[in-house]
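For consistency, the fold was encoded as tokens, as this record shows:
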Amino acid sequence: MTTPANPEQLSQILASASPSRLGGKWRWMAAVMLVLAGVLAWLFLKQGNEGAALRYLSEPVVRGNLTVTVSATGNLQPTNQVDVGSELSGTVQSVFVDDNSRVKKGQELARLDVSRLNDQIAKSRAALVAAEASVKQAEATALEARANLGRFQEVDRLSAGKVPSKAEMATGEANLARAQASLASAHAAVTQARATLSSDATNLAKASIRSPINGVVLLRRVEPGQTVAASLQAPVLFTLAEDLAQMELQVNVDEADVGQVRAGQPASFSVDAWPNRKYPANIKRVRFGSQTTDGVVSYLTVLQVDNSDLSLRPGMTATAEITTTARENVLLVPNAALRFSPPTKPKADSGGIISMLMPRMPRGSSQRAPNGGKNGGKNGGKNGGTAGFKQIWIPRDGQAQAIKVKVGVSNGRQTEILEGRLEAGTQVITDSEAAK
């Protein structure tokens, strides 16, 4: 049985329930109510935003021409460039041409000092004269040996073989054979002396450095008085271009684009010297051999260039645009329409605000857009298992409606439509935004 509180205990309880403690509890409860009100307001605003309508941005389908190009950079070169050097060592005596000089085939460009070569030719001519004199001497010796042998044979016939002796006959025959061998050796010495003289004459001719082609001197690398050393390899003295009216543009085509490039395709290029001018060109050949620079694989492609006005110069850097595909009067859609996919909305929860406060499982990949992750990638990709088909969305009664189309080539900004229920002027969705 509980004992009733006495007046002293009641006074202590009332004293413990002071106004300050009661006020702290009320402030705490007020703070909790404010936080709860803020959360509820945020949830209501979120529901309002999710329910806001979307506004679709669109562009029309157009009919026009589509050109696909491949860009490449390279340098201009002459169609035939020749480095002219010297096969002989010596001192350059004279130089007869300069840079930009026009030359003809066989024209003398420079000349070496030929004093030593002239001395060698004189020595060779003297050796030839001496060899020819030796031939005459050998002929006389052979004639004498033949006469002696004939006399021995006549005596032997008249004496019925008694005289001369067999030893004398053998000596006569040996002398004749020896004389004939000496004569053959003398003739060989003459041939050798003539060859030496001819070689010295050839060297004398090579001392005059002549142009092998009709063309223009691009570069002169020699001056009078300069010593030329041709012991290991022929030094380059002049660089000639055969015809600057016809040139080549050698560009490096990336391995990703080389499959689209082939001989005969048209191209255009520009150079820094004439930035507002486009030069026409045609692909002459695409080399099969590759070259690697800083880890990048490319293939050398040669373009034929007409330079009749001589405005282009060898070595100029040029940027070429190679036309790989050209389509006329085709349906074109912006690539943004191929990349667009309408946003998906989560299903409404039946629990209202209470369910929004409860934890949820993460959404799976089934709530992605119908077009998948990469719509509008490479042309001819697969969509839904059908090669070359993609989905394009058009606005219909405020909603996005999907249309399947077959795409062709693309230039990076527009894509050709081969099949599909699209006409010129049809609006296709390229993006969306929340309606204001």
